[in-house]
Amino acid sequence: MYCRHCGGADFIPFLDLGLAPPSNSYLEAEDLARPEKSYPLVIRTCTECWLTQTEDFADREEFFSGDYAYFSSFSGTWLDHAKTYVEDMRDRFGLGQHSLVAEIAANDGYLLQYVKALGIPCYGVEPTHNTAQAARAKGIEIVEEFFGFALARQLAGEGRQADLIAANNVLAHVPDINDFVAGFAGLLKPAGVATFEFPHILEMVCGNQFDTAYHEHYSYLSLLSVERIFAQNGLTVFDVDVTPHHGGSLRVYACRSDHHAHALTPTVAAMIEAERDAGLGGAAFYSGFQASAEAARDSFRGFLAEASTAGLKVAAYGAAAKGNTLLNFAGSTARDIAFVVDRNPAKQGRFMPGSQIPIVDEAHLISEQPDRVVILPWNIETEIRTQLSCISDWGGQFVTAIPKLAIRS
C-alpha cells in the first residue's frame, strides 16, 4: 500500500471494520441467494502527510455504478443547506447572469437547481447515470463522466472555465486525489473560487463516527492534509468554515495558486493550529479509534439482544451508507431488525447490502408500529424525529448508536 497523495509506504492503523460489501450496492430479491461481493474495510494513516485513507481492493466503478442509489434531494436539511450555500456564494463573490458555476458530483441536481433558479448559468459533472438523469429532469446540464485533470482541460478548452466550482462530499470519494484536485486548478477562471465540503476527521474521531467509514470514502480529511494536497496541485486555501452537516464538516475555499486572487483569512491558520493542538499531526490521535468503534458496536449488539429477549419489534430508518457500515460491523440481519424505512423510491423494495434487511416505505412503518426505530443517519436525527413523531402514538422509541447507544421517546 502506498499513500494516494505522497506515495509514502509508512502507515499506522486507524480502523479495521472487517469484510463489508459496497455500502450503496443495494440488493434485489433475486440477489439474496447469491454470494455478495465483500472487501476488507481497512483504513490507515500515512505518517508522512497524515492523510488517512482506505486500502483499495476494487476499482471505483464497483462503488459508483449506473444504478447508484444515493440521491441528495431526499433530505430537507441538506436541501436547505444547499440553498443557503448558493445564496451566500452569490452574495460573497458577486455571481450573476454573466458568471458560470460548475458542480463536481452534482448528483440529482439538489444544489444546481438553486443556481439555475437565480438565473446564473451552470452545469454539473456527475458520473452515475441515474442521478445524472434526475438532474437533467430538473433542466440542469450534466457532463456524465468522472472528473479529473483531463476532463477539466477538455472543458476549459471548450470555454467552460468557472467562476465558482462547488464540490460537496466528493473530495473523500476519489481514488486519485492529486489528479482530482489538479482538475480544479485547470477548470477555474483566474479569479475563480472552488469550495470543498467534507466530513472533518477531527469530528469523526471525537464523535466516534466510525460509520462514516466505507469503501466509497477513499480519504478521511483534515485541513492539515488538504492544504498540503492542494498546494502541490495548484490550489491555495484562503478560507475555511465549520458546518454541522454529516456530523461536523469543513468547507474549504481555494483559488488558483498562480493568481492568488483572494486574500488569506486568519481562520485558516486558526484551524490548522486547532488540529495540531488536537494531535492530528502525530500518531497518538489515530491510535485509539478502533477501541471506540468496537465499544459502540458491542453496545448496539447488546441492545438488539435485549430487545429480542423482551419480544420487542425493532425497525430502522434511513437506508444510508453509514447505516450499512454499522449493521455489517455489528453483524446485524433481518432477524435483529425487521425492516429499514427510506423515502427514496430507488431503494424501496430492495435489501440492505450484507445484512439483507428489506427496505420499505413509511406507510409500512405506520402499519407495523415497531417498538424501537434505529435512526441510522444520525446526522439528521432531528429531521427524522420530527418526520416520524407519530411513533409516540403507539409508545415507540428512537434509538441511535453513534457516538454511543441512546434510546429516546
In a few lines, what is going on in this structure?
It contains 13 helices and 17 strands. By secondary structure, it is an alpha/beta fold. The protein has three domains: 11-56, no CATH class; 72-286, 3-Layer(aba) Sandwich (Rossmann fold); 309-408, Rossmann fold, CATH 3.40.50.
Description:
The strands form 3 sheets. A 7-stranded mixed sheet has the order 6-5-4-7-8-11-10. A 6-stranded mixed sheet has the order 14-13-12-15-16-17. The mean pLDDT is 95. The protein is α/β, with parallel strands linked by helices. The chain folds into 3 domains: 11-56, no CATH class; 72-286, Vaccinia Virus protein VP39 (Rossmann fold, 3-Layer(aba) Sandwich); 309-408, 3-Layer(aba) Sandwich (Rossmann fold), CATH 3.40.50. Strand 4, helix 2 and strand 5 form a beta-alpha-beta unit. It has helices at 76-93, 112-117, 129-136, 149-157, 177-187, 201-206, 223-231, 266-278, 284-287, 289-309, 321-330, 362-368, 381-387; strands spanning 11-20, 39-46, 52-54, 101-104, 122-125, 142-143, 162-168, 188-199, 219-220, 235-243, 249-256, 314-317, 340-341, 359-360, 372-375, 397-400, 406-408. Helix 4 (149-157) runs parallel beside helix 5.
Percent helix, as a range, is: 25-40%
Roughly what is the average pLDDT, rounded to an integer? 95
Order of helices and strands: EEEHEHEHEHEHEHEHEEHHHEHEEHEHEE
Query: What Rg do the Cα atoms give?
Result: 21 Å
